[in-house]
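--- STAGE predict ---
source: upstream dedup step, 1 unique chain passed
mode: sequence only
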Amino acid sequence: MPDKVMVTVTECADYKLEDIIDHMDKLLIPLGGIKKIVQPGQLVAVKPNLIAKKKPEEAATTHPLLVEAVVSMVQQAGGKPFIVDSPGGPSNKGLLRSVYKATGMYQVAERIGCEVSLDTSEKVLNHPNGRVAKQLTVLKVLAEADIIIGLPKLKTHCMTRYTGAVKLMYGAIPGLKKAEYHFNMQKLQEFSQLLIDINTLLPAQLNIMDGVVGMEGDGPTAGSPRKAGVLLASANPFALDYVCSRLIGIEPESLEVIKLAHEQQLCPASDRIELTGDSLPQLNPPFKLPDHKHVDFDMPGPLKKIIGHLQPKPTFSPELCIGCGECHRCCPADAIEMKDGQPQLKVNDCIRCFCCQELCPHKAVQVHQHWLGRKLLR
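--- STAGE serialize ---
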């Protein structure tokens, strides 16, 4: 790792294409410019956060105008860009089309003349240096791209508290394979290490954070839009997340993924991160965080069961739930069953990944924690 790791910052008040393009120059010139990253003829995967079928104004997905600005830059550098992601839940061409359309990606592709990838083919890659995954099943088109540019969204997260550049690459895992990995790596430490393993196997050469409008509260999909008015960029996703988590009011070292990345010398210490460009905005109050916390315990069965009742769990709003069954279909642990058209939780089977909350199209899933659990587990 170099002596200093650069994170560039530029203020960006709203989503206007001309302004965003101007801000891209400010972000990338200190990093050497787009032509240092993309060579003519290279196949460039532009990977936004398209977690689910959400409209841009819901602030759950990367804004399409940021994607358009980046695709345009890549084209001007002579690269061959395509837009790609694998949202959670079942994956096929029809479902992908609906996500690309709802999130504005198809409209970008039509305006600017680039492809959106409907290829759901998988590729198994060996990862000898992986800590928890010596093999990973990933999207073939991502594995075969020459360059990956990650475009995360600044958001809170009900499982990991914060989601950004590192977790963005979980979208490299195809469709329902994500559920398998969640089920096999139920502890937060294991899952966080998995995210690190994915990033060391398929690193993005450039990461640009969409922090113009982020999401606070019950992110990554059921929270509320929150304006931060900033774009940030770095070649190092861990350094970018260090800065961005602190920006929204989270102590970076409290995040399991940052703590592990520090230990593995992937994330620089704060005095080795060089902030360049505009000053970081002062967000007052800071982003609202999920008001629950789950803790991994290794203890005897009876005591673990008692503590388990104090852990957070998903609940289903009868007013908002339409009985679509998406929570049941996407649950890695098969902990949700449908009875009389409504979801029912099998509490003892729940692994608290909160995929049900992430992927509910109607924000009908909330994460609830007993008041005593909130008090004792913090």
